[in-house]
Amino acid sequence: MNQPATILRTGRKFDQVLKGARDVFMADGFEGASVDDIARAAGVSKATLYSYFPDKRLLFMEVARNECARQACDAVDMVETCCTPQEALTVAARQILSVILSDFGQKMFRICVAEADRFPDLGRQFYESGPMMVRARVKEYLEQATERGELRIKDFDLAADQLAELCKADLFPRMVFNIDTEFTEAERERVIAGAVETFLARYGA
């Protein structure tokens, strides 16, 4: 069950609460973030915060969903663009890698891993609320490109996942193990180009 979908009430301070919660979660993690700190950062009372989010996990998932929905909206341009598969997939790969290596993406990944034992559903809910949305945009483009005869794909779910995994080459392990925390444009473009070339070698028409 996707818990963020149960959030119904919004109001003039809804975005204010989300911004404050985002800052606190990113700084202190899920377990370390207190409701008092979130209310203080958001500039609202605890009563106001609870009127929007009666549970801290709901608030965390809405922060994740809100941020990832914004990132997924960036990917929709790729779906609607009339260009070659190489150009469209390069845009997609660049967006995927940008999300993975972003400060938000890194911290959310670490939070979900750190809380996996105590909150086993947290990672799944985060995936459903965020990364799965970007994956859906990629899958939509792959289906359309295949219909146009530009790509040859039978398993669109697998292909979308494979593109995402290709974008993790080299940089993601270095980030996870704290070998490096920042990467140059050249390093990013190297991975992006390699991901697209490999993908097209398998699925190009």
From TrEMBL:
Q: What InterPro entries does the database record attribute to this sequence?
A: DNA-bd_HTH_TetR-type_CS (IPR023772), Homeodomain-like_sf (IPR009057), HTH-type_TetR-like_transc_reg (IPR050109), HTH_TetR (IPR001647), Tet_transcr_reg_TetR-rel_C_sf (IPR036271), TetR_C_Proteobacteria (IPR039536)
Q: Which Gene3D superfamilies match?
A: Homeodomain-like, Tetracycline Repressor, domain 2
Is tRNA-binding included in the keywords of this UniProt record? no
Could you tell me which Pfam families the record lists for this protein? TetR_C_7, TetR_N
What positions does the domain HTH tetR-type occupy? 11-71
Q: Which residues bind DNA?
A: 34-53
Q: Could you tell me the keywords of this UniProt record?
A: DNA-binding
Q: Which PANTHER family match?
A: HTH-TYPE TRANSCRIPTIONAL DUAL REGULATOR CECR, HTH-TYPE TRANSCRIPTIONAL REGULATOR RUTR
Name this polypeptide is given? TetR/AcrR family transcriptional regulator
